[in-house]
Amino acid sequence: MGVPAFFRWLSRKYSSVIVECIEQRPTDVDGQLVHIDSSLPNPNGIEFDNLYLDMNGIIHPCTHPEDKPAPKDEDEMMVAIFECIDRLFRIVRPRKLLYMAIDGVAPRAKMNQQRSRRFRASKETQEKIEEIARIRSELQAKGAYLPPEKPKEAHFDSNCITPGTPFMDRLSKCLHYYIHDRLNNDPGWKGIKVILSDANVPGEGEHKIMDYIRRQRAQPDHDPNTQHVLCGADADLIMLGLATHEPNFTIIREEFKPNKPRPCDVCGQLGHEMKECTGSTPDASLVRSDPAFGTQDNFIFVRLNVLREYLQKELQMPNLPFPYDFERALDDWVFMCFFVGNDFLPHLPSLEIREGAVDRLVNLYKKCVYKTKGWVTDSGDVNLERVQVIMDELGHVEDEIFKRRHHNELNFRARDKAKKRQQAVNFGLLEKTQFAPMSVGDAAKPVQNARQEAANIRIAGMNAVAAQEESNQRGRKRSAAEAGLDEEDEDKHDEVRLWEDGFKERYYESKFEVARDNLEFRYRVALQYVRGLCWVLRYYYQGCASWKWYFPYHYAPFASDFVNICGLSTKFEKGTQPFRPLEQLMGVFPAASSQHVPEPWAKLMSDPFSPIIDFYPTDFKIDLNGKKFAWQGVALLPFVDENRLFKALEPYYKDLSQAEKQRNMRGHDRLYVGPGQPSYDFVRGLYERAGRELRTLIVNEQRYPYRSQGVRGDVMLSPDNVCIGGQLASPVVGLPPVLDNRVVCVRFQDPQYPDDFIFPARRLKGATEPQRVLKPGDLSAQENRNWRPQIGMVRSNTVASLELAGHRMLGHSLPRDRSYSNVPPPQHQQHAYGQHNRSQSFGPQRSGYVPHNTNAQSFNSQGHSQNRSGYQQNGQDRFGQNQNRHQGYRQQSNNQGGHQQGGYRQGGYQQGAHQQGGNHQGGHHQGGQGYSSAQHGYSSYQSGHRYDGQQEKYGSAPKYARGSQSDRRPAPGSNRYQGRNQGGSTWR
């Protein structure tokens, strides 16, 4: 799940880390879908080696999407998952490895959060079903038409996406089929290996991926310049990627788009919410319920190498009393982020990421490093003495943070109420039309995404039939509600009141239900929290330190409660084992999801005489804890006592069916190898040598060392292997079977290391630093002019330009406006053009001349912009790269080496020798007929600059020469640049 709002904060502060993916999509030709050949070079300009998929980030949106109708059955869900993987593969195009990791059994520290989310989901689903039934009943009483009600079993329970359920077992079999199909038939998959880590393999998906990377990079022959791409939407993936210290690590994720249309749960139409539904239309053909074309979400790359550049600048600390090491400072930054929030600990009350908590912590950290004279962390180990110094500094400003937060909240409420009062004037009596009064914030805004905006307009039009049936009276009531006339006062009673003195005593009394003067309890909570911080850091850098440890409280302590933590032991119990899949189901599921657990065990969740009935409350309190929305609150659920749970389950193990016992087993990763792999003959030979002894070998768990193209480990024969030349039936209805199979499947285990082995958190020897993207701050004037920003994943040397034929076509196509004939304004005809600011130019509009800003690095002293019918022509920099983005047609001039290619002439007018095909040689003007500003004897010497080839020389003062249209001679003593025109201006 990650840290709420972390990615939004990071993408706003470090904006250059985000790059839009260049995606080639299949096209429809005469009803036939033409697929993209992913074996071709990557259109993003970079070739990636390994693609890692955190599968739960794919499974959830494919099975219960929020912005389109949900799949009708599990077969459609599986097809949607296949299509999503195909799309990601088509964008990234890995050349060595595809790693699919599904969440397995999580550590106890994460199970508590999973339990809270699943209980919430079950409660919200039940409330939603009841609300749908109520709205349907009201609409039917009014005679509104409604589609048939979904049967109860048609409601998809997202809680089934948990290890041990029949759904996850079927998903594993479907992915097994999918991998065989692609490796046998898709040319883009030829030559890559695939590893599938399904839900029976313990561990969270992203941490199984990180464990694989850590163990592979610890091998002596690991390539330190491997290109990694990790797919997932969780914010903690950013910290995990930084923790690897790999130079080439990229995250791909779906671009977040707010306010995406969602179908109504009552009528299935887009354009309104469930509470606003007025029914459907009998003619279903008039209203589309599927999203409009063009609304498919895009993917973006998060470049961690660019984030490292940002942090390298931010974490600079001059004059340290010890050697500076950016890799160690980076690890400390990751540790600081844990205080703001993570999946295993509640965040400190004084730290809110929306209030700049990360920046506050980093500033405190940089200040304290000079006192501690050392780094806070080292390869996952924490120096608590130095943490104590940082917490002391934070504790000193904790009171001020709470007071400032309350002050800001009061100001926000006052502004919000004033805005609502202004909007409430006769608001309930006005229809919602385009002429109704609105605030400035609700006024029309520039279109940011044309395709998305067009799709939204189409959606609004498609649902106009249903909207017409809404009564005016109901519309007025809803408008009044939107205006805030019937809202209650938001300033509800807060019994803690963090902004007032004595907040600590009230906090512990209210949240923990202990006496106000119980200082010993506060100390115990703080120590448990510190142990949690150590556990989380170890989890990120070395793997799971203990499967049993968890933070046993719902709330965090205050920073000022961290006292005397230096002597706390950071050792954890070794040799602990994770829950088995079915045991985890009993630990995280509510009674409403009991259909996913074995029937003998389900009774324990609902039987009032069950010894563990207290683990499954049907109703529970959600403490908003100062937040506004319920999803931000704290679900006050009892913690599961694993000893009581195992004791209650023990008598029922014998009642499990064979399939249920299989789902309850811990599994292995599976490695799939196709004919294009160098290790194909070796893996295939294992089965050929085994022959009839296949079953015996599997029982004995015989292991074979495996090493191929950067992948090391042990392989074991698998009972899921499909023999060469055999067939594999499709588990999805409608998909063809795999015929004449050529893929070999074996079980795979990562390289093993001793229990006390430490994976070093450092750059590997031989790692090459990627080309820097951010603009260096120590550029000289000449280097600053030559510097170009990197827009995509790599720097592009492609120069955009138009040939002469293109210029001729534009000249014939553009309308000729004789009103001004491109003549400068009168006030500028009386002054020397050389005195103009070089950054100012004039572009002809329909109403006259409007000043435009041009690039200061451009050779064009006077760039021209013409905005008519979507056409724009702008002066460019010396490399011919357009710094502005235009809608419609874009013409770019290429000014390099003294050659002018983008100058144009219209209506016979030439300004400052800005011409088409014209050339100045020896002071003679060729090709000029008509009006020219040079007739008045002025040609610009901009700001005294003279260009001599690629060198810029500075004169003492501007010089001007008088001449005629046909013969312009240089002024005495001047030295005309012998060469072609630079950017449409005459330089002397």
From TrEMBL:
Skewed-composition ranges (Gly residues): 899-910, 919-930
Q: Please state what class of enzyme this protein is.
A: hydrolase
Tell me which UniProt keywords the record has, alphabetically.
Answer: Exonuclease, Hydrolase, Metal-binding, mRNA processing, Nuclease, Nucleus, Zinc, Zinc-finger
Give the InterPro entries listed for this entry: 5_3_exoribonuclease, Xrn1_helical, Xrn1_N, Xrn2/3/4
Segments of skewed composition (Polar residues)? 828-844, 852-886, 975-988
Taken from the UniProt entry, a GO cellular component term is: nucleus
- One Pfam family recorded for the sequence: XRN_N
Q: Does the keyword Zinc apply?
A: yes
One example of the protein's molecular function in GO is:
5'-3' RNA exonuclease activity
The source's domain of life comes to Eukaryota
Q: Where in the cell is it found?
A: Nucleus
UniProt-annotated stretches for the region Disordered: 466-489, 812-988
- Ranges annotated as biased composition (Low complexity): 931-944
Report domain Xrn1 helical positions: 324-779
Q: Which PANTHER family match?
A: 5'-3' EXORIBONUCLEASE 2, 5'->3' EXORIBONUCLEASE
Q: Which family does it belong to?
A: Belongs to the 5'-3' exonuclease family. XRN2/RAT1 subfamily.
Functional summary from the UniProt entry: Possesses 5'->3' exoribonuclease activity. May promote termination of transcription by RNA polymerase II.
Full protein name: 5'-3' exoribonuclease
